[in-house]
Design a protein that fits this description.
This protein is mainly beta. It contains no helices and 13 strands. The radius of gyration is 25 Å and the shape is elongated.
Length: 164
């Protein structure tokens, strides 16, 4: 007899003893009674989750008082949802927020004072296993006072972007 799983209702990613219950029935006699097999499985280790270093796209310079737009990408080898932490260096922090739209998020902020540079602390971690080592990086951005009469339409003065 060959058993092939048709559905899994749960999984574990923790070490220890876990109870497993298997339902067995005949393919030709679907209405017949289902047999149950119940047993314990010892899991000695866990799946190593690897969170990639975040990929950050956006400008490396900007003007005071004008928003700057960025994208942030992270990845987990277990396909778990991710959380993001961003300290913009201007007193604004995104503190471990889960973005449900996926692994790439769009972010923006405004710097009110010039600096050369602002250090941006970017971190990504697993939403399920917050204690798993996570990816991080520290891009920088130079912010200068906007020239008087400068036009600003899309958040990118020259269209130049940089990826760290």
């Amino acid at each position: 007899m060959t058993l092939r799983p048709t559905r899994s209702n749960s999984h574990t990613d923790s070490a220890g003893t876990h109870n497993v219950q298997i339902h067995i029935r005949c393919r030709e006699h679907q209405g017949d009674a289902i047999n149950w097999v119940d047993f314990d499985v010892e899991v000695s280790g866990t799946v190593d989750e690897v969170i990639s270093e975040p990929v950050w796209h956006g400008p490396n310079s900007g003007w005071t008082g004008h928003p700057r737009h960025f994208t942030l990408e992270g990845d987990s080898n277990t396909n778990h949802q991710l959380q993001y932490y961003v300290d913009w260096g201007n007193g604004t922090i995104i503190d471990w927020v889960h973005f449900p739209e996926g692994r790439t998020v769009e972010l923006s902020t405004v710097w009110q004072e010039q600096a050369n540079p602002y250090y941006i602390d970017v971190q990504v971690r697993c939403a399920i296993h917050g204690d798993v080592p996570f990816g991080y990086l520290t891009p920088t951005i130079e912010i200068v006072d906007a020239p008087e009469g400068a036009l600003f339409t899309d958040g990118f003065e020259s269209g130049t972007t940089a990826a760290w």
